[in-house]
Amino acid sequence: MENYRKALQESYDVMWNSSKESLLNNEINIDINLSNLEKDKRFGLTVLIPLGDIFLKVINQLKEIEPEQYFYPATDTHITIIDFIGASEEVVFDEEQIKIYKKILDEVLKDFSKFNLEFKGLTASKGAVMVQGFFNDELQKLRERLREEVNGRGIELKERYKVGTAHSTIIRFKKKLQNPKALVNKIEKMRDIDLGTFEVKKILFVLHDWYNLKDKTKILAEYELC
User: Fold this and answer.
1) Rounded to whole angstroms, how far apart are CA atoms 36 and 62?
2) Residues ≥6 apart with Cβ < 8 Å to 45
3) Are 199 and 88 in contact (CB under 8 A)?
4) Which of 10, 22, 138, 170 has the greatest number of CB atoms lying within 10 Å of its CB?
5) Integer-rounded Cα radius of gyration of the chain
6) DSSP 3-state helix, strand, coil percentages of the chain (rounded to 5)?
7) Pairwise pLDDT comparison (38 vs 183), residue with the higher score
C-alpha cells in the first residue's frame, strides 16, 4: 500500500488545494440533476465495490453543517473500479456486449483474491466531498487487466474518466452552501482522520445511473473474492 500512498495523497491534496478557496467563496458546481432525479436518464455499465454504511458517522457530522445538500445513502456508497461505459443519456446497451463484459469479468476475477482498502481523511472538489481511499497494487492490477482485456477484444470502453484513485463520493452539492466556512473548517479537521480498513470481498457489475441509486441500479453479476 505504501507504494501508492504518496501518489494518491498528492492527488487528493491537489484536489483539495484547488477547491478550498472556491468552497469558501461559495463558488461551487451545483448538480442541477439532483433536484429532479426521476427525470435523470443517464445510465452506464460499471464495475464497483459496494461499501455500505462505513461512512455513516462522518456523513452525519457533515449533514449537521449542510443539511440541504445531497448525501449518499449507505445503499449507494461505492468505489468505482472501472466504467465499461460511463453514464450517459445517449448510451444504447447491447445484450451481446454485456455478455462479453461478463465473460471478461469471469475470467479476470478468478485470478484475484480479497484485498484491503484504507480510508483516511476527506477531500473535495467544487462539486462534491469525498473520502480518501488508499490501496495496494491489487486494485491497480485489476483495473489494468480489465482495460487490457476489453481493448484486446475490440469492444467499447467508454470510461467517464480513467479512474486512478479509490475515493468514495459522500456529498454532492445541489444548492448553494449555507455554511461554507464551517464546512471547509470541518473538512480541514478531517483531512487526516482515520476511517478504518475495508476488506474487499464483493465486486458488482451493474447497470446504474450517475449516482448509483439503489432503485435505479440493476446488478448484472456479483463476484465473491476468496
Assistant:
1) 23
2) 83, 84, 85, 93, 98, 101, 205, 206, 207, 220
3) no
4) 170
5) 18
6) 35, 30, 35
7) 183
Q: What is the reported pLDDT for 2?
A: 61
pTM above 0.85, yes or no: yes
What is the residue-wise DSSP string for 93-147? Answer: --HHHHHHHHHHHHHHHTT---EEEEEEEEEE-SSEEEEEEEE-HHHHHHHHHHH
Amino acid at 109: L
For residues 42 and 207, is the Cβ–Cβ distance under 8 A? Answer: no
Q: Which residue's C-alpha cell is 455500505? A: 52
- 483539495: which residue's cell? 16
Q: Which three cell numbers stand for residue 97?
A: 456486449
Rounded to the nearest 10 degrees, how much is the dihedral formed by the CA atoms of 105, 109, 110, 116? -160
Q: What's the CA gap between 98 and 155, in Å, rounded? A: 10
Residue 200: in which H helix or E strand, if any? strand 194-200
Please give the sequence-ordered ranges of beta strands (E in DSSP) within 17-77, or none if there are none: 43-50, 70-71
Model pLDDT for residues 81-120, shown as the tens digit of each residue: 999 999 999 877 889 989 999 999 999 999 999 999 999 9
Question: Whole-angstrom distance between the N-terminal and C-terminal Cα of the chain?
Answer: 20
Q: What is the pLDDT of residue 1?
A: 56
Specify the DSSP class assigned to residue 160: S
The side-by-side arrangement of strands in the sheet containing 168-172 is 70-71, 168-172, 128-135, 115-124, 194-200
197/173 Cα distance (integer angstroms): 27
pLDDT digits (tens, 9 = 90+) for 171-207: 999 999 999 999 999 999 999 999 999 999 999 999 9
